[in-house]
Design goal:
The complex is a heterodimer of chains A (140) and B (117). Chain A is α+β, with helices and mostly antiparallel strands and 140 residues long. Chain A contains 5 helices and 5 strands. In chain A, helix 2 packs antiparallel against helix 5. Classes of the chains: A alpha+beta (140), B alpha/beta (117).
Amino acid sequence: MSESLKLSYTVDGGDFVSAGKASEGVKRTLKSIGIDPAVIRRIAIAMYEGEINMVIHASGGTAEIEILEDKITIVLQDKGPGIEDIEKAMQEGFTTATAAIRELGFGAGMGLPNMKRYSDELKVESTVGVGTTVYLSFNV
Amino acid sequence: MKVSEVVKILNADVLCLTDTVSSTQVISACGADMMSDVLAFVKDQGLLLTGLINPQVVRTAEMMDIPCIAFCRGKIPERAVIQLAEEKGIILLSTKLRLYQACGVLYKAGLDADGEM
């Protein structure tokens, strides 16, 4: 692959039922171009956590994926409330999710830690009241 | 362990993909109601046991390449959820056992948490 392949998705906020559709699309594309299944799974899980975050904490956002020869990058951007303390949000178990979200099986405080666990690089930029951007990178 | 054996042990109903239960294997299992906890531990060909029946359970299984989900306490998800699983090739089971019991009987039958049978 000499040129990079780019994918772009809009994540619908507040639509819990269809959350995960973008991750599913990425997973399907990566499979079709023959990426190692173990790498695909890491990417799918990390992106899915990000997508869920955008749905439950922000009112949706965008996902931009770039597939390069040696790595795959994902940029998740939202105009949500922002993260007050990123260091705290990175701790396993820390959550600001409501009881209603936890009843749905999310909001265990594992989102960002899981994204870190499965990616080779994670960068979070956030401004309270403006939004959050998460950069994920995976070596292929 | 074949899914058909899981069905027998849990005395479960097969909600979709009945014809694949004999040809599908699970080599580990995970019991949880928090999907992020499930997502934290990647295992190959795992069985997911849960009391949660929303569509995100199926999506979680899909991301993790989980081939079979067993719903506990006799829960049955909505039709749309069953359809989604069918599309993704994920077998859905429903057992009357509670989560703890279901995990216990499978563990006793040799289905380990780490896939070491």
